[in-house]
Amino acid sequence: MRILYAADYNDLSRKAANLIGAQVIMKPDCVLGLATGSSPLGTYKCLIEAYEKGDLDFSRCFAANLDEYRGLTKDNDQSYAYFMYENLFKHINIDMANTNIPDGTNPDAEAECKRYDEAVAALGGVDIQLLGIGNNGHIGFNEPADEFPTGTHCVDLTDSTIDANARFFARREDVPTQAYTMGIKTIMSAKKILLIASGENKAPIMYEMAAGPVVPSVPASILQMHNDVTVVADAAALSILLEKAPELVEGAPKA
Ligand code: F6R
Q1: Which atom of ligand 1 is nearest the CA belonging to 40?
Q2: Domains parsed from the chain with CATH numbers
Q3: Per-residue pLDDT at 255 exceeds 80
Q4: What is the pLDDT of residues 16-66, one digit of tens each?
Q5: CB of 37 closer than 6 A to ligand 1?
Q6: 92-98 long-range CB contacts below 8 Å, 24 or more apart?
Q7: Distance 133 CA to ligand 1 centre (A)
Q8: Which is catalytic among the residues 117, 127, 138, 208?
Q9: What is the pLDDT of residues 81-90, one digit of tens each?
Q10: From the alpha carbon of 196, which atom of ligand 1 is closest?
């Protein structure tokens, strides 16, 4: 795992977008594994700017998103399908037919999870998987558990995740309580992984993710076992790592 220092959110967004952009240039028909949430918004803005400048062409790219709330339709403004369309897809030249996301409206969880795993496998797997990290160490919606979940599955969201996501909804009661998510096996099958994190509230979990034991109670700790993970995080998110294990972080200014 390489952990790269970014001065602030803008710096991390530019660096992350450049890493994704490099993938698109090196393999124009690559499969981009994408995430929602606050962390990737700046990265998506930078990718849009690169597309507008003519530096990136997404016309042959495929996308596979990590997760979707169960029960929300694609046109619900809180669905992850809507988020991806509004914050990235409608601004670039990706073919919407090449974008994939679990279908939150399929009431048959087992069938939907199987369909999604097959869809990702049919693409040949993910070339670069962008991840955010939850305050509790979740990646996708793989919440802390007794074991690492494998393929795409339906999860009950923890109270901490519902609390964290309530900021996007009018009322906490409106936050869906379940989601379909790629499993740890699917995420770990990506050829490359790019995890981004910003802000002081992520500092404790960033330390556990990178320097703690690999345990399912911190799902993101499994990333220590992947052979091509790049973490780009800002100074605030790296603050505890920089204090306790500075040798793990590249590019930080000398104290
Ligand atoms: C989103 C996702 C989640 C988020 C995580 C961090 O598709 O899978 O794991 O990446 O909850 O969210 P933010 O970036 O809002 O802090």
Answers
A1: 14
A2: 2-250 (3.40.50.1360)
A3: no
A4: 999 999 999 999 999 999 999 999 999 999 999 999 999 999 999 999 999
A5: yes
A6: 92/47, 92/48, 92/51, 92/56, 92/58, 93/51, 93/57, 93/58, 93/59, 94/58, 94/59, 94/61, 94/63, 95/59, 98/61, 98/62, 98/63
A7: 6
A8: 138
A9: 999 999 999 9
A10: 14
